[in-house]
From TrEMBL:
InterPro entries: HD/PDEase_dom, HD_domain, OP_Dioxygenase
Native organism: Microbulbifer taiwanensis
Pfam family, one: HD
UniProt xrefs under SUPFAM superfamilies: HD-domain/PDEase-like
Domain HD: 58-120
Record lineage: Bacteria, Pseudomonadati, Pseudomonadota, Gammaproteobacteria, Cellvibrionales
Protein name, entry field: HD domain-containing protein
Length: 196
């Protein structure tokens, strides 16, 4: 069993890790992290064909939200936030907005992160009353500096993006933007290691 695999660390408990082990792991991190946009794109495509009762499927909704923001002149980072805002629908059935926010957090402004994280509560204004909930749940954030930004997001881009007859730019159109936004993290636990 002394068949050493060159590109893998050898510890069984992390406490046994050596500088050589961590050189191997750190060396593998860069190429893997660079492929993050590919994994995001692949995951977005999982939303295709999944309507969940809505008038359009979840990918179409995400693309239309991004299309509306783009056509309205929003900047690239904002458009990418719009594109990904519901990417958590597959894994975060009970907290989808948090999933998107966590993915975007290292790469976007605090304002855009807050907007994505809270969009579900703000969006609830349009339907919480039909589910026995308080449609004004968002009012708890009335004095928050990102209240207006998030209100605008749901009103102008998220809520209207269920129009099967409306414009939907393809994922390929947004791909270069996504790659640019995800090129370099602004903040990360591993910042020092990534950016020595
Ligand atoms: Fe959402
Ligand atoms: Fe949405």
């Amino acid at each position: 069993m002394e068949d050493i695999i060159e590109n893998q660390a050898r510890f069984t408990h992390m406490a046994q890790g050596t500088p050589e082990d961590w050189q191997i792991i750190a060396g593998a991190f860069g190429p893997f992290a660079q492929q993050l946009p590919d994994r995001i794109l692949a995951h977005l495509q999982l939303l295709q064909g999944d309507c969940g009762g809505f008038p359009v499927d979840r990918l179409t909704h995400c693309l239309q939200t991004a299309t509306l923001a783009y056509r309205d002149g929003k900047d690239e980072e904002y458009v990418v936030c719009a594109l990904l805002h519901d990417i958590g629908d597959t894994l975060g059935s009970y907290n989808h907005a948090d999933v998107a926010a966590v993915l975007l957090e290292p790469f976007v402004s605090e304002e855009n992160h807050w907007m994505v994280k809270h969009h579900a509560i703000f969006q609830g204004y349009y339907f919480f009353q039909y589910l026995g909930m308080d449609r004004n749940l968002r009012e708890q954030f009335r004095d928050h500096p990102c209240y207006g930004r998030t209100l605008e997001f749901v009103e102008r881009y998220d809520a209207p993006a269920f129009d099967a007859g409306g414009e939907v730019l393809p994922l390929a159109f947004f791909e270069p933007m996504l790659r640019r936004v995800f090129a370099q993290p602004r903040k990360s636990l591993y910042q020092q290691a990534v950016d020595p």
